[in-house]
Design the sequence.
């Protein structure tokens, strides 16, 4: 397996604990389906032209929250790795992301 | 810097024949590093953490399983092999960190104070394991402030003072060349005596004086034990004290280190170097 895939697999495995799964799966669902439908009532649908209308919950909310939660989770992993010393450890491993060459 | 974590500021260095500036990846493929600071995976247990680390190093699955079992046995981690790494004590985490590095093959291992936080029994078994690996051909670059460990493990010791290597030699040669002082150790029947301590501290024959609080043993470092021993008995007589035991101990690496660093400080002040 390629080193990049091995690192990605390691990040996924390191995020399969209960707390991470909650923030990755349950929390976005809560935002989209509970808060999203709630906001749908007060955020007016957006007319994108040609008679097409996008409401909050299926489009903008879902996209935004997917981006936010994805970015947050990736950032959290990096933050934990920095805090726990794994970031430096991985940089000194067989990874191709060196400081020197 | 030698582990390629930091870029070189100036000069040239090679590790295992590879240039530090241009062949960092080749170097990293052949080395292992145990940092001084903690390093562990959040959200994984000990066994999975070791397994994923082995995966990153592309160790085949069957080989990973075999090595994990072997290392867990060697480093006495059976009782916490399924525990999440965040719940481990500092000593357990240290053991995991050292054990994990042996999951992959390497030619050179950098160990930065690997025994900090370990209890004496585990520390002994870790050092024995390291020594065994050295015997099998692994080169270890071992950084420590505990000189007994350096003496036990190392074939060559580099003494660094103020960020500069002042001497590189075998432990025996360092002791022979710089450990001229001997240590006279004695105990008083009465336990302690501040008068005795103050008189010996100010004696011209004594270069260092201290007392081990646990055992109550006084330790006098001197180049003239033949003058210090009668002086101890004279002082004991005068102060109505009884010396219950006394002996001259061999020069330790610590004595040699202190002498060397002191000499280096003096030489540096005069613009020279210790030779």
Sequence:
């Amino acid at each position: 397996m390629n080193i990049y895939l091995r690192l990605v697999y390691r990040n996924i495995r390191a995020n399969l604990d209960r707390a991470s799964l909650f923030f990755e799966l349950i929390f976005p669902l809560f935002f989209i389906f509970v808060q999203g439908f709630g906001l749908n009532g007060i955020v007016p649908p957006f007319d994108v032209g040609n008679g097409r209308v996008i409401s909050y919950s299926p489009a903008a909310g879902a996209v935004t929250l997917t981006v936010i939660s994805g970015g947050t989770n990736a950032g959290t992993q990096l933050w934990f790795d920095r805090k726990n010393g794994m970031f430096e450890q991985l940089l000194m491993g067989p990874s191709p992301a060196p400081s020197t060459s | 810097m030698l582990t390629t974590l930091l870029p070189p500021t100036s000069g040239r260095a090679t590790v295992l024949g590879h240039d530090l500036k241009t062949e960092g990846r080749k170097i990293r493929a052949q080395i292992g590093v145990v940092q001084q600071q903690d390093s562990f995976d959040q959200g994984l247990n000990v066994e999975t953490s070791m397994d994923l680390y082995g995966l990153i190093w592309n160790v085949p699955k069957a080989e990973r399983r075999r090595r994990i079992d072997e290392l867990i046995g060697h480093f006495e981690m059976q009782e916490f092999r399924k525990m999440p790494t965040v719940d481990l004590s500092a000593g357990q985490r240290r053991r995991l960190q050292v054990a994990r590095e042996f999951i992959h093959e390497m030619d050179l291992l950098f160990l930065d104070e690997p025994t900090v936080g370990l209890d004496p029994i585990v520390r002994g078994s870790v050092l024995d394991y390291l020594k065994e690996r050295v015997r099998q051909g692994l080169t270890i670059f071992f950084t420590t402030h505990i000189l007994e460990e350096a003496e036990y493990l190392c074939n060559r010791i580099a003494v660094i003072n103020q960020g500069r290597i002042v001497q590189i030699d075998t432990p025996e040669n360092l002791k022979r060349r710089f450990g001229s002082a001997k240590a006279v150790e004695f105990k008083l029947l009465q336990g302690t005596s501040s008068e005795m301590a103050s008189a010996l501290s100010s004696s011209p024959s004594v270069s260092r004086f201290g007392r081990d609080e646990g055992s109550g043993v006084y330790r006098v470092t001197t180049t003239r034990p033949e003058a210090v021993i009668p002086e101890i008995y004279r002082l004991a007589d005068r102060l109505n004290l009884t010396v219950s035991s006394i002996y001259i101990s061999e020069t330790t690496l610590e004595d040699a280190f202190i002498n060397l660093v002191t000499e280096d400080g003096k030489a540096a002040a005069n613009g020279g170097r210790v030779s």
